Amino acid sequence: MADDATPQDTAFRLGWEEWVSLPDLGLPALKAKVDTGARTSALHAYEIEPFGPAARPRVRFMVHPVPGRSDLAIPCSAEVLDRREVTSSNGETELRYVIQSEISVGGRTWPIELTLTDRGTMAYRMLLGRQALSEDIVVSPGDSFCQPSLTYDVYHSTRVREVAPDRTLRIAVLSREGHSYSTRRLVAEGEKRGHVVEVIDTTRCYMTINSLAPEVHYDGKRLPRYDAVIPRIGASITPYGTAVIRQFETIGTYCVNGSEGIAASRDKLQAHQVLARHRIGMPTTAFAASPKDTGNLIQLVGAAPLIVKLLESTQGKGVVLAETKKAAESVISAFRGLKANFLVQQFVKEAAGEDIRCLVMNGRVVASIRRVAQPGEFRSNLHQGGVAEAVRLTKAERETALRAAKAFRLGLAGVDLLRSSDGPKVLEVNSSPGLEGIEKATGKNVAGSLYEAIEKHVRPEPVRRRAARRTAG
């Protein structure tokens, strides 16, 4: 130190207002009021919600970083340090969550504690109290912006996405099979990526349906706000399951698969009609209600052998191969006697007991396998003893799978194809495809790919500069 220098000359100087950054929370620019009269620092937050295990609780919240810009909202999450009663300048006491974050001012960075409170009516989104100021920091009450200024323009650039921390997401897996491979993998992979994943039994959900505040309840409590829902709706509860999904859609929750797509894919007749409407190749299919039409029904799909398939069939159950016309008539008669709805379908002999399962996620085939039936069996489903192996798709097969998933507007779909002499034919579009067979056969982290797609969809992109100008005007 020079002989004529004083400690105050070398101190880090702040004015009564400064530009600050909270990089841990993905907030690159905030105007803060520096107030040595306040002991605790505070950050503007709303929709404050605790989550995670009791041993290590976390809190999630939203921030409007720019005063007057309610259209720009940044989602944040952090570990809870404490809950503390704080008395504001107007004498009101509030119990607030306390978190920790790095603060950066003028090139200097240090950790501070922050309480979360709604400062929506305040001119400054952050208050910097004396507890956050070390001994070598000097505050000049008559000065403003002693440190270099930042700009709110950073929220309109792609740089925000590049530097934003990976925000913890809260995700619900709707499944009645909590111990199945697929559900366990979704939970394990989500938690590995730092998210909170909760398995919700679909049939234990119930709903409040109204125009102002629709809600989903579970075991006597209102379910929290989820960032995303992954439906694993079983065929036996499709009507109720899709009703629950519709309720989440009404609330505004992102659902990997929508209710309409799930319902259409489950109804075999409707599914084939959707494929036909989009001119997607499939085996010739016929449907009739009257027993008088049995002969014509068989003729419409060609000569035997042919397939007779229950509309509610899953995993290869309720699917029968009729080798002769007489056998087909007998099977159809038996199904009609049970008052069951069924389809009659062309048998693609050249497929030779093999089919292709393509797993499509958000417009991309992430994995594909060939399933081969056991000797003497025509059904290649893994639940029927089929064997799976990784397979390379042709361009036509890939395009067909993508078109089929898009036709049902499914974010996650298992598209089953047959390799026929005149190109790929879609057998089925599955809205709850299993992960075990395809992950083990291909060695790919399919669950991880699903979370990548969810993260990309849920985490918001920065507001475009043009939109911001239009709003400001």
Automatic annotation (TrEMBL):
Q: Which PANTHER family would you find in this protein's record?
A: RIBOSOMAL PROTEIN BS6--L-GLUTAMATE LIGASE (PTHR21621:SF7), RIBOSOMAL PROTEIN S6 MODIFICATION PROTEIN (PTHR21621)
Q: Please report which protein family the annotation says this sequence is part of.
A: In the C-terminal section; belongs to the RimK family.
One biological process term from GO is:
translation
Q: What is this protein called?
A: Probable alpha-L-glutamate ligase
Sorted alphabetically, which Pfam families does this protein's record hold?
A: RimK (PF08443), Rimk_N (PF18030), Zn_protease (PF05618)
> Which positions fall inside the ATP-grasp domain?
272-455
Record keyword Secreted present: no
Q: Where are the transmembrane segments?
A: none
Origin species, per record, is Tranquillimonas alkanivorans
Kindly give the InterPro entries that the UniProt entry links to this protein: Asp_endopeptidase (IPR008503), ATP-grasp (IPR011761), ATP-grasp_RimK-type (IPR013651), ATP_grasp_subdomain_1 (IPR013815), Peptidase_aspartic_dom_sf (IPR021109), Rimk_N (IPR041107), Rp_bS6_RimK/Lys_biosynth_LsyX (IPR004666)
User: Needs which cofactor?
Assistant: Mg(2+); Mn(2+)
Show the GO cellular component annotation of the record.
Answer: cytoplasm
Molecular function per GO: ATP binding; metal ion binding; ribosomal S6-glutamic acid ligase activity
Which keywords does this chain's UniProt record carry? ATP-binding, Ligase, Magnesium, Manganese, Metal-binding, Nucleotide-binding, Protein biosynthesis
